[in-house]
Amino acid sequence: MSIIITVSNQKGGVGKTTTSAALTSGIFLSGRKVLGIDLDPQGNLGFCLGADTDNRYTILDVLKGTVPIRDALVKSEYGDLLVSDITLSSSGLEKFPSNRETILKNAIQPIIDEYDYIIIDTPPALNLLTVNAYSVSNHLIIPMNSDILSLVGLAQLKDTIESVRDAINPGLNVLGILLTRFNGRTLLSRDVLEMAQQLASQIHTKVFETKIRTGVAIAEAPAHGESIFSYNPRSAAVADYLALIDEIAPDIQLKEVAQNG
Hints:
With 261 residues, this protein is an alpha/beta fold. It has helices at 16-29, 44-48, 59-63, 69-72, 103-107, 128-136, 154-167, 187-202, 216-220, 228-231, 236-248, 254-260; strands at 3-7, 34-38, 74-76, 79-82, 117-121, 139-145, 173-180. It has a single domain (3-260), classed as P-loop containing nucleotide triphosphate hydrolases (Rossmann fold, 3-Layer(aba) Sandwich). Strands 3-4-2-5-1-6-7 form a seven-stranded mixed sheet, with helices on both faces. It is globular and about 50 Å long. The model has no long low-confidence stretch (mean pLDDT 89).
């Protein structure tokens, strides 16, 4: 069965999609079968991975049951994708008469055993889409910028995680908090690290040893339709994402990713 990892934070601009794309492409380049699911109405995961998403069925078609999931799969150079667009922002899932929190779980059931990993990108909100992602996932990764404002609202995220554990998915595990745009030489980053560690202990997880440094290559790669690993493998931030993959999935050979990237 697939290992399902959701990347989530209700705050925008913290690196959710970049992290989702890095995990999807990096794990795929190691030779694993990977499915990326975009639950963000901005639809940036497909763009980041260079997928042709024009005139394609979206994850919303699958969630509503109007299209078989296999018909909605988009092939990319970095694995299979279920893409999204702005129509997902008014999904109407709240109108489903029952089991609204497990629509995604039921929708992907026909293919769930066909992938080694499924990576889910979520919207910057704690809404029904996010809860659906939590309900089907084995693990969560919480990215956050290395600034004080990124800590705001994480208590609410903690409550949502606990609610899903209590009601739907008791095995939901928070793999860790991932600090992005990190500069260990600044006092601010060190202060945020200390506070993030305190928060991590409250939700029974950790701050990843890997911290993601700022890198121009991370921002430039999607515009060229490439993964970060092929666009500029010498970037410090790219090296950090390789280290993250090693930290969360030590069975994956980083040399394979570097060579195939």
